[in-house]
Amino acid sequence: MNNKPIILDIDIPPFHFHWYKKGYKVEIPVESIISVSTREETETEKKAKQGDIEAQTILGDICFDKFDLKEALYWYEKAAKQGDSKAMVGIAKISFYFSDNDKFDAKAIQWLKKAIKLGNADAMNMLAWNFFTEAETMPKAVYWFKKAANLGNTEAMWHLSDCYFFGEGTSKNSSLGVYWLTKAAEAGMIEAMHDLANCYRDSKGVEYDTEQAFHWYKKAAELGHSSAKKQVKYFKKYRKFNKKIKF
Questions:
Q1: How would you label 157-177 residue by residue, b for 16+ Cβ within 10 Å and e otherwise?
Q2: Chain segment 100-143, per-residue pLDDT in tens
Q3: Which of 104, 119, 134 is the last residue of a domain?
Q4: What are 51-99's pLDDT values in tens digits?
Q5: Are 24 and 61 contained in the same domain?
Q6: Which among 70, 78, 83 is positioned nearest to 114, based on CA atoms?
Q7: From CA 195, how far away is CA 198, in angstroms rounded?
Q8: Has residue 36 got a pLDDT over 70?
Q9: How many other CB atoms are there within 10 angstroms of residue 114's CB atom?
Q10: DSSP string of 128-139?
Q11: Spatial distance between the Cα atoms of 179 and 158, rounded to a whole number of angstroms
């Protein structure tokens, strides 16, 4: 197969879209371009065409991951109109990629609000980000981060911890910052594990505790966090010279 990249002026992947808007052409490897006509229809596609809501949302996710935003939007809208809150969030995600100011457009906001009424925590977290861009609307961001965090959304927990640490949209409260950071770390969020380890290492909102710091660095390192891996090596090396360090 010819692996030489080709220049396309269509269907720009989301992670390249910022540069595309600035007037750049985008290089996409030939092997990443899949022709639908060269493969058989999947079971998910069959179900989606038959009106299965879950299949339509799944197909939207598949197209989104392949950067086929036009097709993803088609299936998200099909499912969203039938009341699927995940599909509603999918529509908002696509809208964000085409935003010039890192905000959702009016149509996306409507879909997010509909998803929120159905109890979708991801929609709450995304709406919070829409308010996080300006100082006067940050209290609204904190409100929605809290709502999403209380429903188990780990990203919202992580962002909420920062709001408390830095006093953004609320008054500073390091104890609450650590509380939500711990919640996110315990729920499996790698960045939260690393940040929580930093808190124990630097006495930020908690007492200095090398055992806890090492515990969370190790957890994050095992999941592939590069900075945490370096910290684990450092702790092990430093332990040789200072036996008082516990872990």
A1: bbbbbebbbeebbbeeeeebb
A2: 777 888 999 999 999 999 999 999 999 999 898 888 999 999 99
A3: 119
A4: 999 999 999 999 999 999 999 999 999 999 999 999 999 999 998 888 7
A5: no
A6: 83
A7: 5
A8: no
A9: 17
A10: HHHHTTSGGGHH
A11: 10
